[in-house]
Amino acid sequence: MFQEKMFNKIKLIVMIPAFNEEKLLSSVIQDIPKEIEGIDKIEILVINDGSTDRTLEIAEKSGANYIISNNSNQGLAMTFKKGIEESLRRGADIIVNTDADFQYNQKEIPKLIKPILEKKAEMVIGNRQVRTLKHMKFGNKYGNMIGSFLMRVLLKNRVTDASSGFRAFSRQCALRLNILSDHTYTHETIIQCTLQKMRIIEVPVEFRKREEGESKLVRNIWSHLKHSGAAIVRVYLMYRPLKTFLSIGIIIFFIGLFFEGRYLWFYFHGQNGGHIQSLLLGTTLIIVGFQIATMGFLADLIDANRRINDEILYKMKKKECEKKEN
Q: Is the Cβ–Cβ distance between 215 and 171 less than 8 Å?
């Protein structure tokens, strides 16, 4: 669809999830460029996540093209998901997600979408260069750095700012995203794109100090790490179950063999009356390791079914969006 529309008009939708951001939302909307080279139409979508202040009123007065609202506060992940779906229904060829707190410089959107226009990437992440930020809290800074490091180790990619919310998606990438987390979308989208072999590029962006209020997502760094960690593990298990369970099972199995070997060594050296604990522990670990490995094969069969469902869902979403456009 995106390749076909390259010969026609290209629409960019900038989506802004917002929860109680009446003081800064207007500045974000006004900061979005009105014209970008290579883009024929720019539209702004605000997703009001059940705000209790004047966020909805400010969005209407500040020039947002579309506004949708959650009846109650559903959290960033669900609000992001709703924004992606609405942007696709509105015919977006490229979708940019940005925050409503005015920490990102919207004038850098052309730089953010350039790799997609040049067909060099399906997703582009605005790298805040967290290590150099002096205004970011110590816990948030090193929590971000540790989380990004673990993602690189897990996925073997080069993303250095996995928590950045300033990012762009091609239409094909957005159609293939299926958000399951109820906390945040940032890590989950990277995992899905990486494991589906989509190209991800980072570009350096400005990240300003927050002037009003505090982060709605990272109020407590340990809680954020717990929720993000759970989301990472869950999504990785969904996409790489055989590798994960088989690796864990083999490790436990060989630890069990070590204790079995320890018992046999003492047994054949005349100490057959003791070290029964090694025999029991080794036997237990071998059984557990074998069971976990078996779970991996079963999970892999379920994963094959998930991939079929993902493809069906992709085609259904694509067909639905094409109908909306026509």
A: no
First to last CA, the chain: 13
Give dist(CA 303, CA 186) in Å, integer: 22
> Is residue 148 helix, strand or coil?
helix
Whole-number Å distance between alpha carbons of 71 and 48: 9
Q: Which domain holds residue 276?
A: 241-314
- What pTM did the predictor assign? 0.78
Whether 319 is in a domain gets the answer no
pLDDT at 285: 93
94: its two tokens: 């490229």
286 and 263 co-located in one domain: yes
**pLDDT for 98-114, tens place per residue?**
999 999 999 999 999 99
Q: DSSP 3-state assignment of 153?
A: helix
Domain assignment present for 188: yes
* Within a domain: 321: no
Q: List the beta bridge partners of residue 123.
A: 169, 200
Digit-coded pLDDT (tens) for 276-315? 888 889 899 999 999 999 988 888 888 777 777 778 887 8
286/283 Cα distance (integer angstroms): 5
Q: Are residues 213 and 290 in the same domain?
A: no
Picking from 85, 47, 40, 38, the residue whose alpha carbon sits closest to that of residue 65 is: 47
Q: Are residues 90 and 146 in the same domain?
A: yes
What is the total count of domains within the chain? 2
- The pLDDT of 132-157, averaged and rounded, is 83
Q: Are residues 294 and 200 in the same domain?
A: no
Residues 287 and 157 in one domain: no
